[in-house]
Amino acid sequence: MRQGLFSPRNLVRKFTPNTRPGANVPSPVHPVSPHAHPFKSGETLGRIGSLEVRMARNFKEVKKAQRLRYDVFYEEMSAIADAHTLATRRDADPFDAYCDHLLVVDHASMKRNKLGRLKPEIVGTYRILRQEIADRRGGFYTAGEYDIQALIGANPGKRFMELGRSCVLKPYRNKKTVELLWHGIWAYVLRHKIDVMLGCASIEGTNPDAIAEQLSFLHHNARAPEEWRVRAVEDRYVEMNRLPAEAINARHALRALPPLVKGYLRLGAFIGDGAVVDPQFGTTDILIIMPVSELNTRYVNYYGADASRYAS
């Protein structure tokens, strides 16, 4: 692992997931009806006060998560909606039908549904896709930007899992919500015996020169070792090594990075080779690679080897 004064772990102190990992990619080869997806039962994975983390119970809850994503990505941020997205006011794609959806709900903020029943508000979400599901449904979402199949093929004995569509309502971007999301992810990793987590994270802006210090910092300090390195697809590859290491103000670069990216670095994540510009969402994407064996031991110990810290 990376060591020294300017290692990401030593420099990063705080994180809050308020940007969307992922980018616009073609639909998978075998899209299915959302109503055919066997959702989890929705048992509680953890709780802090009125906030609960669990998996979505049905497609109605997934639709609420999609509305939350729309509010953040399209209303608050700079994503450009097509006609269908504008009409439905939901951020949705075919992958939603067979992904698992991790939710944080607030039992102190009740909203009436169309039938007039009070339901706790969904205030945070993560989309999760396991390798065995992706293999049956046309692959991972991330494959539209990075050649992840080469890494998967080189590790036939390991189980991969994709994280995406991280989204938290602005008033809830705080330590409690962050901790519950990561507690839920850790419980999911343990339950499904996951070996490697991966996915895209985004930096605001589509001009790589304007974020050269951030990209270069990641290249010099967090790039994956050779055995975990994945390269952006050739026709979308953007060079991250834009400044020499000695020209980078490491603390300034870290402050400028999105909180989600800093959170991943704190956990011990590696960064892929090359960035990808996503004009639709107005972002530049980087690949996050997190082998479970390389996770920061403080994170594992904090949430518990059996994910018991916030278990109810």
Query: Strand-residue fraction?
Result: 15-25%
Q: Span from first to last CA?
A: 34 Å
Instruction: Report the principal-axis shape.
Output: globular
Q: What is the helix/strand order? A: HEEHHEEHHEHEHHHEEEH
Total count of helical runs of at least 4 residues: 10
SS class: alpha+beta
List low-confidence stretches: 1-40
Helical residue percent band: 25-40%
Radius of gyration: 19 Å
- Please summarize the sheet with the most strands: 9 strands, mixed
Q: Output mean pLDDT.
A: 87
Beta-strand segment tally:
9
Layout: helices, strands, pairs:
Layout: H1 8-11, E1 44-48, E2 51-55, H2 59-76, H3 83-88, E3 100-112, E4 118-130, H4 131-137, H5 148-153, E5 160-168, H6 175-191, E6 196-204, H7 212-222, H8 250-256, H9 259-267, E7 270-271, E8 276-278, E9 283-291, H10 297-303
Parallel strand pairs: 5-6
Antiparallel strand pairs: 1-2, 2-3, 3-4, 4-5, 6-9, 7-9, 8-9
